[in-house]
Specification:
Layout (H helix, E strand, L loop, with lengths): L7 H24 L4 H8 L3 H4 L17 H23 L4 E5 L4 E5 L3 H8 L4 E2 H9 L1 H4 L9 H9 L7 H15 L8 E4 H17 L8 H23 L5 H8 L2 H26 L10 H8 L7 H32 L4 H15 L3 H4 L3 H14 L4 E7 L5 E2 L5 E2 L4 E5 L20 H11 L3 H7 L22 H18 E5 L8 E3 L2 E3 L5 E6 L9
Parallel strand pairs: 2-8
Antiparallel strand pairs: 1-2, 3-5, 4-12, 5-8, 6-7, 9-12, 10-11
Helix pairs in contact: 1-2, 9-10, 9-21, 10-11, 10-15, 11-12, 11-13, 11-15, 13-14, 13-15, 15-18, 15-21, 16-21, 19-20
Bound molecules: protoporphyrin IX containing FE.
Protoporphyrin IX containing FE binds next to helix 8, helix 15, strand 5 and helix 21.
Length: about 525
């Protein structure tokens, strides 16, 4: 497996060294202020945590002492959700900070300060925030951190994706046939997370690279494993101080392995498209309409090199697969745990698809389904924070309340706690699958479907619904992802009965700021009669 690049021994070794040095540094700072050389040396090892003690005017959730903040940082791994909730309860419209092992995380609670971040330019940089947390310079490279020409493509093609909906549906049907060996006689137990990851990878890659590659097990394994490998390596590199990055970066980076594999799987397709472009320009008969062609059309200079094009496709997969499949898992577990919703959603799916098929406009009419999905994500969450940014202005970033965050600090917006705030979501700890449908019903009754989508839909944006971020970096894949989720869940409900394997919904797993459904949990499925072709 690709993760072999980052062996458990290496992980333990580096983590232990860094924690020991960090604790040593904090101890020396506190009790032996005269031991300058040692302190100086060790300061390199814990600069993230210790350099920020100047921010005493910003409240800390947890401990802020040089030694004791490490205790809170360790606690954050297990209790991240509670720590963010406490911060939000105390400072719902303010700013607070949380110690993590690698750095201080500054968190905006809501209100005007979220608007400040939404309106801000590169002085609080989305890209530098991403570059740092994913450590592009070692893990992905490929000029992606300098050139973001793929964004223009995603903001057009993945918003106007109507021409690909038949293919997406076809891949959904074929994928479920291959991945779910269920029959109509008995319940079959399915590992939900693994199944959905593969299904989403297939559906997305049907649009990114087309047939037959979107069904190639090894290529799909690379796409699925890429995110985990990159994040594991980036976390380790980020634990080390900056001056050690040139040593630990290459040591842990999966880049060379990913590059070799992506050239193996995507190289022939990319080379052929480049050759055809050279001969015929961008218009040639039978030119496949997919992400490979779109990127080949736009790429210039080193961006048009085979391995860089391939790595960009892997990077787009990174953004697309795990987020979408996590949400599908939440939704299916929630539906199995609340079977009273199933018939309503099935009926809605039946009415819409029988008359209009599986087109973009048809699936956009699954309003109850959309509401259930949004409620499922609101209730369970993918993360405690959203909109991660890094302050890149040497003069710092000044919020409208007068507080300035200095150059180099990381700031984000609270999400899970805000999505459970009764001021925005009445009775927030009750699961109401039709919460957003009911809010949008007056608009729907007046035929104002667009209003529903802007104000209440799963893919909508607002300062109180920050799942997709806000402003110019708001997720460009959100409509595509929402379509995949609605269409897949509709198809599953029309073609399968679903049931929990145990007597309760599998618990979500929180680690630090991130939340995922139980990736080992199974769901029971049984085929329903008469709906085999998905066009009931
Ligand atoms: C449920 C699924 C998804 C979630 C929850 C999600 C969430 C996000 C969030 C929170 C951001 C950052 C916004 C900000 O900080 O302001 C983002 C950015 C991005 N997402 Fe998604 N995303 C999802 C699916 C997708 C898909 C399917 C794609 C592509 C196929 C995609 C591509 C991107 C890209 C390229 C960016 C960077 C935008 C930029 O640089 O301006 N995402 N997404």
């Amino acid at each position: 497996m690709l993760l072999a690049d980052v062996s458990p021994q290496n992980i333990y070794l580096l983590t232990s060294i860094i924690i020991l040095f960090s604790i040593g540094k904090a101890y020396l700072d506190k009790y032996k202020p005269n031991v300058r050389p040692a302190s100086f040396l060790l300061s390199f090892f814990s600069h993230h945590l210790c350099s920020c003690l100047q921010f005493d005017h910003i409240p800390t959730i947890g401990r802020s002492g040089r030694l004791t903040s490490y205790l809170s940082a360790v606690k954050f791994f297990k209790n991240g959700r509670e720590i963010f909730q406490k911060g939000y309860d105390l400072y719902p419209k303010g700013l607070f900070k949380v110690p993590t092992v690698a750095k201080w995380e500054f968190v905006v609670g809501g209100g005007e300060l979220v608007e400040d971040l939404r309106k801000a330019g590169e002085e609080v940089s989305f890209h530098q925030g991403g570059v740092e947390s994913v450590r592009f310079d070692y893990t992905i490279k490929s000029n992606i951190e300098n050139s973001v020409y793929h964004l223009k493509i995603m903001r057009t093609k993945l918003v106007s994706f109507a021409p690909f909906c038949d293919d997406i549906h076809d891949e959904c049907v074929a994928g479920l046939q291959d991945l779910i060996p269920a029959n109509d006689k008995e319940w079959t137990s399915i590992p939900l997370w693994n199944t959905l990851e593969k299904l989403v990878a297939r559906m997305s890659n049907r649009v990114f690279v087309g047939l037959p590659l979107c069904r190639d097990e090894d290529y799909l394994g690379l796409c699925i494993g890429f995110a985990g490998n990159v994040m594991a390596a980036a976390s380790l590199i980020n634990l080390a101080p900056k001056f050690l990055h040139p040593i630990v970066g290459p040591l842990f980076s999966p880049y060379e392995k990913h590059k070799r594999l992506v050239v193996k799987y995507l190289g022939p397709v990319i080379r052929e498209r480049l050759r055809m472009k050279e001969e015929h320009g961008s218009e040639w008969e039978e030119r496949p309409d997919d992400m490979v062609s779109w990127l080949v059309d736009e790429a210039q200079g080193i961006d048009a090199e085979v391995e860089n094009l391939g790595m960009r496709i892997l990077f787009i997969n990174f953004a697309a697969i795990h987020t979408t499949s996590m949400i599908m898992s939440h939704v299916l577990f929630d539906l199995a745990a609340r079977p009273e919703y199933i018939e309503h959603l099935r009926q809605e799916a039946k009415e819409v698809t029988e008359t209009e098929g599986w087109s973009k406009s048809a699936i956009a009419k699954l309003y109850k389904m959309d509401s259930f999905i949004r409620e499922s994500v609101r209730y369970s969450s993918l993360s405690g924070i959203s909109m991660m940014r890094k302050v890149c202005d040497p003069d710092g970033f000044r919020f409208s309340n007068g507080i300035t965050l200095p150059y180099g600090t990381s700031v984000s917006v609270i999400s899970d706690a805000m999505h459970h705030d009764a001021a925005f979501y009445p009775d927030p700890y009750a699961f109401d699958g039709f919460r957003f449908y009911k809010l949008g019903k007056p608009d729907l009754d007046k035929g104002r479907d667009a209003e529903f989508h802007v104000k209440h839909a799963f893919a909508s944006l607002s300062t109180n619904w920050v799942l997709w971020g806000l402003g110019k970096h708001a997720c460009p894949g959100r409509f595509f992802s929402a379509h995949e989720i609605r269409a897949t869940v509709a198809y599953i409900l029309l073609n399968f009965d679903i049931k929990l394997e145990g007597d309760r919904r599998p618990d979500n797993q929180w680690i630090a700021h991130a939340c995922a459904p139980d990736v080992k949990a199974h769901l029971l499925l049984r085929k329903r009669g008469g709906h085999e072709n998905g066009r009931v």
